[in-house]
Amino acid sequence: MTVQEWIDGYFRAWRDRDADAAAVLFTDDAAYLDQPYGEPHRGTDGVRAYWQGVTATQEDVATRSGMPIVAADGRHAAVEFWVTMRNGGIEITLSGILFLRFAANGLCEELREAWHFAEGTLAPSATWGT
Question: Could you give the CA distance from residue 91 to residue 58 in angstroms, rounded to a whole number?
Answer without folding.
Answer: 10
